[in-house]
Specification:
The mean pLDDT is 93. The longest helix has 15 residues. This protein has a five-stranded mixed β-sheet with strand order 3-1-2-4-5. It has a single domain, classed as GTP cyclohydrolase I, C-terminal domain/NADPH-dependent 7-cyano-7-deazaguanine reductase, N-terminal domain (GTP Cyclohydrolase I, domain 2), CATH 3.30.1130.10. It is elongated, with a radius of gyration of 15 Å. It is of the alpha+beta class.
């Protein structure tokens, strides 16, 4: 089973340059999580995407970052430490309006517990 969200707005201080670090910026987060679903109708047997989104937003708000890569690592660490049924994920962070002649730029990572799981 997979859950996902697209375009989740994370607010954080991020960037290398002084002008980037003056105020919080919006980073867009797309995430797909594959997990071992127990075929029940109980929320405790699944991953609550609202809780995951809230946790991601809190992680971003509580820190400041120079690199998107570091924020991505913090989000990945959270999933590994808090989702025991985690099988695979794909996560992408996007900064908008930072490169001339480009709509956006960002980082992305994919992880799988085994080759059987593909996002």
């Amino acid at each position: 089973m997979k859950i996902f969200f697209e375009g989740l707005e994370l607010e954080t201080i991020i960037g290398l340059w002084d002008w980037e670090r003056k105020e919080k910026r919006i980073i867009l987060c797309d995430c797909i999580v594959e997990f071992d679903y127990q075929k029940s109708d109980a929320i405790e047997d699944t991953i609550n995407y609202a809780d995951l989104a809230t946790s991601f937003r809190k992680i971003a708000q509580d820190q400041s970052y120079y690199l998107l890569e570091r924020l991505l690592e913090d989000l990945k660490t959270f999933m590994h430490e808090n989702i025991p049924q985690l099988l695979a994920y794909q996560i992408k962070l996007t900064k908008i309006d930072v490169l001339e002649h480009a709509k956006c730029c960002g980082v992305e990572d994919t992880w799988s517990k085994s080759n059987k799981h593909s996002i």
